[in-house]
Every structure is written in C-alpha cells, then in structure tokens.
Amino acid sequence: MDCSICDCPRIVRLGRHQKLIFHAVATRGRAGVSARPPKLCIKGEAILMKKNCIQRVQAFLLALVLICSLAVPVAMAEGEISLNYTAAAMEIGDTLTLTADVADMLASAGISWKSNNPAVAAVQGSGAACTVTAEAPGAATITASITTDGGATHQATCAITVTEPAVPVSRVEISTAAMLNTVEKNDTLQLEAVVYPTDATNQAVSWSSSNPDVASVDADGTVTGAAPGKTVITAKTEDGGFTATREVECSGIALSKTSMTLLVNGSESLSFPCYGAASGKNVVWSSSNPSVADAAAGRITGHYPGTATVTAVVYGTGYAASCTVVVEEDVADAVNCTVQSGQFCGFDSLLSTLNSRSREKTGAGLDYLISLSVPTSQGILYHGYVSPDAHGHGVGGTEKYYYRAGASQMSLSEVSFVPRTDFSGTAVISYMGYATNGKSFSGTIRVEVENAGDVSYSTASNRPLEFTAEEFTAICQARTGRSVKYILFEQPSASRGTLYYQYSSTGQFSQRVDGNTKYYTTSTPSVNAVTFVPAESYTGTVTVPYTCVDSAGGSYSGKVTITVYSASGTGRGDVEYTAGVGEKVRLDSSDFNDVCREVQGTSLNYVYFDLPSSREGTLYYDYTSKNDYGGRVSDTTRYYRNSSPRISQITFVPADGFSGTVTISYTGYDTAGESFTGNVIIRLADEDGTVYYSTGAGKPLQFEAADFNEACLRSNGASLSRLSFDLPASSRGGLYYDYTSSSGGSRVSSSTSYYRSGTPQLSKVTFVPKSGYTGTVSIPFSGYDVDGSRFTGSVRISVGTSGDGIVKYHTVSGGSVHFNAADFNTACREITGDSLSYVRFTPPASRSGTLYDQYSGLQGSAVTSFTNYYRSGSSRLLDGVSFLAVPGYTGMVSINYTGRSSGGATFSGVVEIQVYAAGGPPTIDGYLPFRDISSSAYYFDAVKWAVNTGITSGTTATTFSPDAACTRAQMVTFLWRAAGSPAPRSSVNPFRDINSGAYYYQAVLWAVEQGITSGTSSTTFSPDAIITRGQTVMFLYRNAGSPASGTGSAFDDVKIGDYYSSAVRWAVANGITSGTSATTFSPSASCTRAQIVTFLYRTFAGW
Predict the structure, then answer these.
(1) What's the DSSP call for residue 36?
(2) pLDDT digits (tens, 9 = 90+) for 362-371
C-alpha cells in the first residue's frame, strides 16, 4: 500500500498463510475526523518501518490524541469512498480482506464488490468488507461501488497481481562430464551448473577458484588455465547457498623451486609433479651448462662456479619447466696453487693440504678424489703429465685417484693441471673427496695462472719502430715450451699509430699489416719486417694485440706494449716512466742498469739524483703512504743497484693535481767508477680511456659499464661493445665476476671479453682490494667499439681513501642549485664501494633556504625528511632536487643526508652549499670547488675565469675534468657564452642531428649565423664528435672576424694551405697558443677542456 509516511508504494504482497495486521490512522476530512489505513511497509507477519516513519507515526498519534480531546470529529466528505489497499501482490491460493470506508451520508447505501478478472482474483462478500482469493497468475482489479438514491455512483479500486508460488532451491550439481577436468595453460574449459529442483524460482549461481594462480573462473563458469597445478572450482547457489565442486588440473609440469644456489659439488632435489595431460609421463632433464650444474631425476648437482638453467621436459609433449641454478665456490675452503703461464700445477704438491681438508670435514684421512673437473677454456687435467709432447692421458670424471695408491690404482700425486697457453687468471678445479671412513666431502682447487710476461718496446714520438722475432720466440717458449710457427697481428687504435709491413720512410710501397696475414720468425713474410709508426705527435702507451700459434698448433693471445715518448726530452741516458695523474711511480734499478750498459758498456753501481720541484712532486725512500715512509731522497746520497740504500726503494709521489712531464736529472757511476748523466722522465697524463674509481680499504668495488662506455666515447667517438682486462698484481687485489661476499665469485680472465650489453656483463666485474692494501691500482684494458675499432685505457682505483660523504655546491644569495645524482653516487662509491640507490635529506633551516623537488623557477614541492630520492628511475629523482637560497642570506648551508647503496649498505654525508653575495664567488684567488684543479696548473686562472663568467660550471660539482676531450657542441657553447650568449636572429635549424631541446641548440644556430661553423655537412653538425686543436683555433679565428695573419708557419705540422693555417698564425701572434712543442702544434690532436678554456681566457679576458 502507498505509504505517505515513508514514501513507499501502498502495495502489500501477501504470501501463503501470511496475515495483514492493520491499524487505523485518523485523518481530518471536511466532515470531521475519520480513519484510513496506516502508511506502513508490511512483509509477512512483521511490520517493517523505517526509523523516521515510526517517529512520525508516534508524533502523529500524539497529535491525534490532542486533537480528539479538543475537537469534535469531522465527517468524511460527501460522496467519499476508500479501500484499505489500492494494490496488492499475491501468490496463488492467498486471500486478502478488503474493507471500504465511506462517508457518513453514504453509510446507509449498500456496497457492491466486483473483480474484472475472476479467473485471476475472485471476490466474495458484501457490505463494508470482502475477501479476495488468488486463483491464477495474472492481473485483476477489484472495484467497490456505492450508488446513492439520486443515482450517483462512487467507486474505489484495488489492483491485484497474482504469481506462482516461489519454489526454493534444494541442491546444485556441476553437469559437465566428470572426465572434463583438465585445461591447458591460456586455454579454457566450460563448466555448467544445474540447480534443483529445475523449476526453482531463483536459478542464480556464482563461481570461484581455490587457486586462481593455477586456473581462474568467470561468472559464466568458464575456466582459464594459468599455470600447471590443481585447483577446486566451486558453484554456489544464491538461494540457500548450496555448493558443488570440481577439481581441475592445468596441464604441465611444476618444479618446487625456480631458482637455487649451490656450492660446488653440492646437491639438492626438486619435486616435479605433473598435471593433466602431462600426468603419468616420463620427465627428461637437461642443463644449459652441464659443466656448471646438471640434473637427474630432479636432483641438481653443482660442478663449477657459474650459472646454468636446468630444464625438465615431459617426454613426448611440449610441457617444460626450468630452474636457474647459481653455483658458488667456497673460496675460504679452497686449496690454492700458483703457477706461471706455460707451467703446470702438479697435485703432488697439494697432497698434504687435501689430506688436511679431508680430516677437517670428515674426521679421517683422504682415501681418493673423484669427479675432478675444470673448464676446458682454462686448461686440462692430465694423469702422468711430463711435457706438452708426453702429456699422459686425460683425467676422467668417474675415475678414482688415490692418496695412497695400491696396485692397479691411479695415484693422485700423478695428476696435473696444465693451463691453456692463452689463459691467465684463476682456474677452478672442482672435486669430490672420500675419506678412509667412507664419508664424502666436496671442494675446489684454485690455480692462479700468472702471465709470463709479453713483448714490450719503446720509441720516440714520430720515430718508427721495427719488431724483432727474438722477443716473440722467447715469450712463446716460456708460455708453451715450443717455438713460434707464425703470428697474427691486430692494428692498434688509429689515433695512436699503425703497423706496416716493409715500411719505407717515404711512405712508398708501405703496406698496412693485415690481421689475416701470417708473419713468421724464420721465413717470409717476416716478423722482423713489421714496423710500428706512431701517430703524428702522439706520446703515451700503445697496445698491439696478437695471436701466436706454436709449432704444435696450439695458440695463445698476447699484447705488444709500446711506450712512445717525447723526442725532445730524450737522451741516451734517460729512464722513462708513464703513469696516470696522481699515480705514484716506483723506480726500478734494472732500468738504470740497462741504460748504463747501453751507454757505458758496463753494469751500474750507484746514482745521485737531482730533486724535482715540489710543484711537480717528491722523491721518497721506502714509501708506503703519505704518513709512512723512510725519508725523502737526498741529492747527496748514493743510491745503489745491489745494496742499501737501493734505487728500487725510491718512489716518486706527484703533487696533488699535477699533470705533465717531470724531468729529474741524475748522475750514474758504473762498476768501473766511470760516470754518465741522464734524466728520469716521468709522464703523468690520463688518456681518454681512463676510468676513475675509489673505494675504502678492503671494500669491493663493482664496475659500471656506463663508465667504460663514456671512456670509449671519449677515445673513439663511438659506443663500447666489449673489452678485456689485464689482471692487477695479486699484492694489490683481484678482479672477480659475479662477486658476492659469501662466495667470492669467479676470477676474471684476461682472455675473456666482457660486454656492455651482453654476457658476460661488464657491470658484474668487481675489484676486491688485497686485505691491508691502500694506494692506487691501475688496471689496463683494451676493447672494441660498436664499429669494430680498438681502443685502450685503464681503470685507476684509489684504495683506502674512503670519502667523507661531502657533496659541495655553490650559488649566490637568492639563487638556486640543482643537485647532481652523479655527485652523490661518487660519494656512495667512495664510502661503500657500491652504486647509489637513494638518498634522504634533512631539510635545512628555513632562514637559509629551502630544498625543492622539481623546482621550475616558479614553484616546486618541498623536500621532506621521509622521502627517498633515487639516482635513477621514473619518479622522485635526485637530479630533480634543488636548493633555493633565501634572498639576502650568505654563508655556508649544511644539509645532512642519509643514503643507501645498491648493495644495501647505508651511509651518511652532508651537502655543503656556499652561498655568496649577489656578485658571485670571489674571483681568481677565491673559492674553486674542483678537486682535480691544482693551483699550479697552467690553466688554473683560465678555469677560475670560465667559472666566474658562467662559461662552465665543471663536469660535476667537485670536478672540472681538465684532460677530458671536448665535443663540438661543448666548444660552440663555451664560445657562445663567452660572447655573452646572444640570441640567434633566426630559428632555422639546418642540421638534422641538432634537437631544439639540446642545451647547445641556440649556440649552434648563433655560430652558423656568425660564420664560425657550417657543420660537418650541409645537414649535420656532429655535436658529439671530439673537436681538434685545429678546429678550435679556427672557431676562435672566425669569431674574431678572420683578421689578416701574415704568411708562413711556425710549426712543422701546420702546412701552408691547411684550412686552419691562418687561424694558427693568428692564435700564435695574439698569444693564445704557443703549440704543443717548439716545432709542433698538433692540429689533429683532441682539444681538452683545459686547453679550450685557456684559449677562451686568452682571447676574451685580455690576459
């Protein structure tokens, strides 16, 4: 029924045997007060009311009582008739009593009741009430009528709706055939559910899966396979909650583990249940690298350090599952042996140690070893080895080798490991041991194979050098025990020099050495006719890779190392050394003895040294560290070859930041008492291929491929493909691959290439310092870029100089500083040895400034102390953090931070920001934040000027990288800024390799407008190409208006007619450059950052 109190329709649905409880409600009509049905929601025997409905009824009844006590009832309006229901819903068999309420004036008239559809709802009764009976489904209208004496008819109606009785659910079943209980991965299975009785009113069913990771089910009962396994699919009725289930299997094989770590010779079993169509079938096991790990019937066994993928395949099907197995060596428990390349490691020297290992692990002595294994890339295990030509027979994996061999038993003492001739590094031999008490144990034997040395030469700049066969023959004999058959040479980096065959100084008939041509030591084409010609004006170290094939057909890889020194500083008595900036140089008495024998024809006795300038460095005796040395070298002390004080205990320690050539004069005396003079020439310079790292004493340092890629770009102008390392001295540390603190990883091999993008990964190489070692380690490497061109370089690692975590910046009052993630990464690597993951900051005092994230010059969000800022990723990057100084504030701002390394180590540090007055930092004699700039450097004032005028701010907050080569983009940007950063008049960009978002975009457009450059072609500028000294002075010359510069040339390497000859004459005349020597300008050499800011300083600052 329609309820005016709660606004629900006045419709009552009566079920079978339900009662309608009715209460009258008084209403005031025109004739007084009368009653009509209450406006309630009724269901069954309950009266359902909304809370506000009840409250309103109570209030209304209270008001009714008051009204009734004060007023006379008012009669119903004339002609009014109403029913207690205006509509009702009924089920077949239900009855409903309708009552009529009429006005007083009609009370004497008779009421008639009628149904317009008696077959649906029949009506019986007369007078004020009738009974309605539901007969059949459908709709009917019950009408109550009163006819007055005057013939007027008054009516009221009730709409009746009759439905079948509700049929409750009694059960549910899954009707799909029971055999349909499997599904393929990513395939579907349709399940159907039947609700009983079949005529139940509510047929709704919901579906669920007990394990959606195996198979999921949708609302229609469609099952989708996800992964091998079992799950239970359940159908549940909405009416009554009845359930039916079906166990479904997704076909395939599942392994109990998808990854595991084992020690060498360790084992672990996997369970491998098969489901669905795979059930009951045989399983076949395989390994991607059986020498590392293999499997049988689910049991995985590790054999050698490394990674392998073990795969289980269901025979005759496509079902398979894999487990990644990492095998680690128990380094602390390994047996160690060291041999030179070309030598072998006999197990007779290891018997005592192996017997001790057996007692430690089993409590009994060693009986025998079995399962001896080593990768063939490292060498071969033999039994009965004598020489390369009498090597006995190979060691079998299932053969037993006895500690005390009896008759017909093979003796362990006759087992030998013979390294490959081209192998150096650590070979790892795995084994399984059995003790006399029957117990077993496993372990490894680590054989350190040290390089037997290689061919080395030296020559002056621009002076050709002929190879000699004797050196190659001696090295081959030492490594293999055999003579040379032939040699294959590779060309060195073209920027350093070229190999020629039958070289002629005129250049005629000189052919380049071909990497496929065999050169012989006793026939032609002869090694003796191979000549190395240094690149013009090049000085430094050149590496020439070669492959030597011995007389038995075996081969090894080697390197010819050539030191190219400056011709102007060399005499017959000179001893030369080359090192990186900041690297200490230990003198070697044999070098001085060689010079003495060459000059005097006799052996050396002793020498006196002149002392170098303190600006260059200091000579120390018995030097260990800056706080630990025996004393300074005296110019009045004799230093001997074979007695104390010895020449070989003298170390040259360069001054901080010094780079260049140090010349130390000395006077030598031979054993006959005759004297001679010479110079110790020490060249301190970092090549383009130098990669810098630092780490704490004893802290492992993981390399990053990106650092070596940058070195390759500087050296060759192309991205890195791969490289290989020379191994450092074991007294300083070792290189490991996939290093962990627990296993130690595998030793890096000098014959293995490590890739920037590929396997083995360069970023998985780690340097582990020798315990107790501090100092600088230089590790040479050679590599290839993506174009196939070679380049060489070195990794310089400062060990024991852990940083303090201080990151320094500077700005002016009211200015801002953008943080550089690379600075924090450097601090992290210095302290932890690992790369940075993220940093949290403690915001500074508001009086000095604010830290912002994503500050744009107008707005940004304030940095909070609980937010991580990451070195890389997609959000909250450290590069997006900025400090905005409060206007008027000057002084030092210290911002504490806590960082976390990629290895999980935490560290702390501080960001120090020097805020200067609005005029900027003090000029020449003031603050300069760069650690790699010495006040004695020739470019010191130029760098000061460049920083103060905004031409450059360095490569990081604390480094300027003076020796790094400059690109064409950097050069035009420096020049543009020096000219005042003028806006280009046109926005037309002729170069397809210049993006409008590049930092150098406007500088390039300006330079083109000014006629300073026209690009490397009509459509390319080559912004990342390294700029040469010739191009640099040409840019400056054109910027000056290309003034007349006279004729002639001051340098032998600048010819009349060279495009840069006028520019060089102008630059010399204006004091901008004086060349690289008295006779050379080196126009094709790369122009460094230090040289460029010096040229600009001399051009614009009027020095």
Answers:
(1) E
(2) 999 999 999 8
Q: What's the alpha-carbon Rg for the chain, to the nearest Å?
A: 47
Say how many C-beta atoms besides its own lie within 10 A of residue 159's C-beta: 15
Determine the Cα–Cα distance for residues 650 and 636; give it in Å rounded to an integer.
15
CA dist., res. 1022 & res. 1002, Å (int): 15
| Dist CA 207 CA 221 (whole Å) | 6
| pLDDT of the residue at 151 | 79
Q: Please, are residues 1084 and 1076 in contact by the beta-carbon 8 Å criterion?
A: no
Give residue 490's pLDDT: 93
Q: Which residues contact 368 (CB under 8 A, 6 or more apart)?
A: 400, 401, 402, 403, 412, 433, 434
Prior bond of 37 cis (ω within 30°): no
Q: CA-to-CA distance for 145 and 139, rounded, in angstroms?
A: 20
Cis amide leading into 760 (omega within 30): yes
The token pair at 466 is 């002929």
Work out the number of other CB atoms within 10 angstroms of the CB of residue 122. 17
Condensed to tens digits (0 to 9), the pLDDT of residues 497-507 reads 999 998 877 65
Question: Quick one: pLDDT band at residue 41, thresholds 50, 70, 90?
Answer: very low
Instruction: Using alpha carbons, select from 1086, 1087, 810, 806 the residue that is nearest to residue 947.
Output: 810
Peptide bond into 921 cis (omega under 30): no
HSE-CB at 322 with a 13 A cutoff on CA atoms is 8
Contact 447, 339 (CB under 8 A): yes
Strand 555-565 to 456-460 pairing: parallel
Q: Is residue 632 within a helix (H) or strand (E), and if so which, with residue range?
A: strand 628-632
Q: Are 838 and 827 in contact, with CB atoms under 8 Å apart?
A: no
Cβ atoms of 431 and 371 closer than 8 Å: yes
Where are the strands (E) in 329-439, listed by range? 335-340, 345-346, 366-373, 379-383, 393-394, 401-402, 410-411, 415-419, 425-435
The residue with tokens 């790292």 is 693
Where is pLDDT greater, at 859 or 910? 910
Phi, psi of 62 (to 5 degrees): -60, -40
Three-state secondary-structure class, residue 57:
helix
Place of tokens 């943080």: 819
77 DSSP 8-state letter? P
More confident residue, 857 or 620: 620
The arithmetic mean of pLDDT across residues 1082-1091, rounded, is: 88
> To 10 degrees, what angle do helices 940-948 and 1089-1100 make?
70
Q: Would you state the pLDDT for residue 725? A: 92
Nearest to 563 by CA among 687, 655, 659, 440: 687
Backbone angles phi, psi at 589, to 5 degrees: -60, -30
Q: Residue 76 is which amino acid?
A: M
List pLDDT tens digits, range 676-713. Answer: 888 898 887 666 678 877 777 777 888 888 888 888 88
How far apart CA 906 and CA 537 sit, in angstroms, is 48
CB atoms within 10 A of CB 482: 20
pLDDT band at 538 (very low <50, low <70, confident <90, very high): confident
Which pTM value belongs to this model? Answer: 0.35
Query: Mean pLDDT, the chain, as a whole number?
Result: 82
Q: For residue 50, what are its two tokens?
A: 């909304």
pLDDT mean over 913-922 = 68
In the block, tokens 């049929």 appear at: 167
- CA dist., res. 696 & res. 475, Å (int): 37
d(CA 1050, CA 1054): 8
Smallest CA-to-CA distance from 965 within 1087, 1084, 1073 is with 1087
Please give the Cα distance from 861 to 841 (Å, whole number).
14
Q: What is the dihedral of CA 732, 735, 736, 738, to 10 degrees?
A: 120
Non-local CB neighbours of 343 within 8 Å, separated by 6+ positions: 419
